[in-house]
Write a structure and sequence with these properties.
The protein is an alpha/beta fold. 48% of the residues lie in helices and 18% in strands. The strands form 2 sheets. Strands 6, 7, 8, 9, 10, 11 and 13 form a 7-stranded mixed beta sheet that branches. The longest helix is centred in the C-terminal third of the chain and has 18 residues.
Length: 342
């Protein structure tokens, strides 16, 4: 059999001979999608220049550097999110994406804003998980004025339409959690609520949606005032212990923000694990085990792979558009887990 020619390659890819030559020779402008089509055709017909085509495609890919500012590296959720971002970057075929992922132990608005500005110095766009605060908003405005897109992940840091956002609909999350309690609790009773910090817009919406459901459908439940954990395991454990002491008839506990590991520790040490309905967030090692042994009833989780993919694709679009694309918002469907479907 004769070796496939340039004409054979062009015919198989549905392009002109000149275009096929430009792909192989690396001369002239060829769309990335066209180059990938030529590569696929080359694989199909056994074209001899695969190595050359691969190198041309790699050289022609647009290159970006994106920075991400996440919470404490001791929290598995953020380690999982970081890994999802790395995986999504590796899988991106039409551009080369370099990531810089930093973790914050100090979650104060002053430190968050300073790290945002620092991270953006060497990045084309940044993604951040942050609480709403004037100092953080000022940092966002500074970066936007410099042409650096800012993406809020997990929790909005400004009203929709002002800052790019990728996450869940907190109102729906809260109402779904409330539905779970209404249908699982054997009788109406007291429900405790733990929040990480009410300045996180997602947590505020979680709690608001939760209460709205009970006002509408199950007003015979008593929803206790939320207690803040400040995203700390130790504080969450203490708050849960206090709830159990103050309300020995507690029927359920809704962890509407950070602190699920502390809540679980308190329930287990007090002998209440499995006796109190517990709904919290994110499927990870500790919540998987809690579902399996009955300490947790439901887990509501972000689809982390989707979050990562939407973040990177949104950043690429925003950088290409140089800020003229408006605000990018992606509200994703959440996942629900029980011991039967993990």
């Amino acid at each position: 059999m004769t070796r496939p020619t340039i004409r054979d390659l062009a015919d198989a890819a549905g392009v002109s001979i000149a275009t096929a030559n430009r792909v192989i020779g690396g001369s002239g402008n060829v769309k990335q999608s066209t180059m990938l089509r030529v590569k696929e055709a080359a694989q199909e017909i056994g074209f001899y220049g695969m190595g050359t085509i691969d190198s041309r495609i790699a050289a022609a890919r647009a290159r970006y550097r994106f920075g991400f500012l996440l919470h404490q590296p001791s929290r598995q959720f953020y380690l999982n999110l970081a890994q999802a971002l790395r995986t999504a970057a590796e899988r991106t075929s039409d551009s080369a994406i370099e990531l810089r992922i930093d973790f914050l132990d100090d979650l104060s608005p002053q430190n968050t804003a300073a790290k945002m500005l620092e991270l953006a110095e060497n990045c084309d766009a940044i993604g951040v998980v942050a609480a709403v605060h004037p100092i953080v908003s000022q940092a966002v405005e500074t970066l936007q004025s410099q042409g650096k897109p800012v993406f809020a992940l997990i929790s909005q840091i400004a009203p929709t339409g002002q800052v790019h956002f990728i996450g869940l609909d907190g109102w729906k999350v809260g109402r779904t959690a409330a539905w779970m309690f209404e249908h699982v609790c054997k009788r109406p009773g007291k429900l405790g609520v733990l929040m990480g910090n009410p300045r996180y817009r997602c947590q505020e919406m979680n709690e608001s949606g939760f209460r709205s459901y009970f006002r509408e459908y199950a007003s015979d439940f008593t929803i206790l005032e939320p207690r803040s954990t400040f995203e700390s395991k130790a504080v969450a454990e203490e708050m849960t212990e206090n709830l159990l002491k103050e309300h020995p008839d507690l029927q359920g506990l809704y962890v509407a923000g950070g602190g699920i590991s502390g809540a679980l520790a308190a329930l287990r040490s007090s002998g209440n694990a499995g006796k109190i309905i517990l709904v919290g967030y994110e499927l990870m090692d500790i919540t998987k085990q809690a579902l399996l042994d009955g300490a947790m009833t439901f887990v509501i989780s972000h689809p982390l792979n989707r979050v990562a993919e939407e973040a990177l694709s949104g950043m690429v679009r925003s950088v290409k558009a140089k800020g003229s694309d408006g605000a990018y918002t992606s509200v994703l469907p959440f996942e629900i887990y029980t011991r039967e479907n993990i």
